[in-house]
Amino acid sequence: MSSRKMISDKKLFDKIKWSPYGYWNEEKVYVEKRHEGQIQILDAWNGGAEEIAVEAGTRFGKTQIASYIGLKEFTEKLDEIRQGKRESVKGWIVAPTYELTKKIFENLIRWFLKIHPESANAITYRPFPQIKLAEGVWIQGKSATEPNSLLGEELDFLIGDECPRINKDIWMSYLWPRLTSRRGRSVLIGSPFGRTWHHDEYLKLKKIGAGFNFPTNANPYFPKEKWEEAKKLLPERVFNQEFRAMALADAAAVFRGIDAIIKDNALADVKKDHRYVMGVDLGKHEDFTVLVVIDKDNNNVVYFDRFKQIDYPFQKARIKATAERYNNARIIIDSTGVGEPIFDDLRREKLFVDDFKFSNKSKKGLIEKLSIFIEQLRVFIPDNEILIDELKSFGYKLSEAGVVIYRAPQGLHDDCVISLALAVWGLLGAANPMTPLQRELAKAETKKRPDNFI
Q1: What's the pLDDT at 257?
Q2: How far apart, in whole angstroms, are the C-alpha atoms of residue 98 and residue 59?
C-alpha cells in the first residue's frame, strides 16, 4: 500500500469518523475494532485492483465498505481536479432498481457532506439519485432494469450493488464497456443468488486477490446469538445462501429447471379442435397487464401479451378478443381489487371466466403448483426474455412470523409469473408431491421466530 493511499485513508477517517479499523462512538470515544474482511477489500482497492467482486452474507458490511470506496475514489479525484491533473470525475452506483441504489448513495453522501458541507444543494433524487458538483463532476445512481439509460457514458468508477440480481448481459454490454476508455475501476457486491455471472467474476478475481467471499459472522459487530438463531430457524438452503454466502446452483429460485421448458415453437395460432385456458393478471398503477394462453392438449404457452397504460374498457376488449380467438378459452383472472368489476363484466359477456382471489395462502398454492409443473416438465413456454427473467428472479422471504411469502425482488415485476401461474391453475394436476424447496419452507413455517429476530 502506498504512503499516499495511507494518508488518504487517515484524512478520511479524521473527517467521517469511520474506517474498517475502528470508529468514534456517540460519546466521541474511539473504538478500535478491526473488520478484517473489509480491510482485505480496502487493501485490494488501495493496491490498485481494477475490479473487485465481493460475495458476502447479509449484514456483513458490504454496503459500508463499498460506500467508503466510492467516497474515497470521488474525493481523491476531486483533489486531482483542484490540482489541475484532471478535468472531470464520473461515477455510477448501479443496482437492480433506483430504490436499491439509495443504500450506497445515501451512505456515501452522508460521509461526503461531513467533508464538504457546502455541497448539500448539489444533491438531487429526480430523475435519479445524483450529486453533481459541476459539469462532468458527479456520482449518479442507475437502475440496471433501464439499459437505455446506461448508454454513451465514460466512467472513472462504478459500484454495483445486488449484482447477482443484475442480468449478465447488462454487465457485459452496458456496464463494463463504460469503464474501458478511462480505465475505470469497479467494486461489485452482493449476497449470492444462485451461480450467476457475479459468482464467475468472484472466482476469476479470487485468483489475483480481488475476489472475496465472507459469511455474515465475519462481521465482528454481528451478534453471535443471531447467527445461531438464524441457523436454527431457517431452512438449510436459505441459511447457507443468506448467511454463509454460499452460491448454490438454482438455490435462490422458486422455479427450477426453467431452461428445460423453453420451446422455440411454443407460440402458435388456434387449432380448431384444441382446448385453451388463459391466465390474466391485471395491471395496477405502473404494473403490466399480462395475458397467457395455454393449449390444454400439449400444455404449450401459445399466446403471450404484455401491455400497460390502457383504459380498462380496452383491456376488457383485448381479453375478450383473445379468449374468443382461442376457441372461447376458459379465463382465470385475478379478481382482487380492481379485478373484481372486470371479472363481473366479462361474466356478463357470457365468457367462460373464473376468478382467483389472492391471499398469502391462495398465492402460495398457486405458485407451488406452477413450480411443480415447471420442475416436472408439464408446461412449456416460449423463448421470451421478459417471461424467463421474471421466472428466474422470482423469490420468497420469510415473514417475522416465519410464514413464506412468494414475491418478485424489490422493484421488479411479477406480472408474467402470476399470469402464467393462473393459466397453469386451470390445467389438470395438483401441487403434490412437494419439491425439496417447498418441503424445507414448510418446515420453516412451523418454527416460532423470536420477536427480536433480525
Answers
A1: 86
A2: 21
Q: Is 331 left (phi over 0), alpha (psi -120 to 50) or beta?
A: beta
Cell numbers that stand for 88 in this block? 472531470
Distance CA 431, CA 415 (A): 21
Average pLDDT for the chain: 88
Unique residue bearing C-alpha cell 493511499? 5
Which residue type does 116 have? H
Could you tell me where in the chain the CATH 3.40.50.300 domains are found? 9-243
Residue 282, all three cell numbers: 391485471
Place of cell 455474515: 216
Give the contacts of 14 (CB within 8 A, at least 6 positions apart). none
Contact 335, 346 (CB under 8 A): no
**What CATH number does the domain located at 9-243 have?**
3.40.50.300
pLDDT digits (tens, 9 = 90+) for 415-442: 999 999 999 999 986 544 455 555 565 6
User: Which residue in the block uniquely carries the three cell numbers 467533508?
Assistant: 115
Report residue 271: phi and psi, to 5°: -115, 135
Phi, psi of 325 (to 5 degrees): -60, -40
pLDDT for 443 equals: 60
- Residue 1's pLDDT band, with cuts at 50, 70 and 90, is very low
- In this prediction, residues 271-299 reach a mean pLDDT of 91
Q: Is CATH 3.30.420.240 the right assignment for the domain spanning 258-426?
A: yes
pLDDT: is 6 or 302 the higher one? 302
Q: Report the percentage of the chain scoring pLDDT > 90.
A: 63
pLDDT of residue 388: 93
CB 379 within 8 A of CB 243: no
- Looking at the chain, the domain(s) classified CATH 3.30.420.240 span 258-426
> Reduced to 3 DSSP states, what percent helix, strand and coil does the chain have, rounded to the nearest 5?
45, 20, 40
How is 421-441 classified by DSSP, letter by letter?
A: HHHHHTSS--S-SPPHHHHHH
Helix (H) or strand (E) holding 188: strand 185-190
Cα–Cα distance for residue pair 123/263, rounded to 1 Å:
48
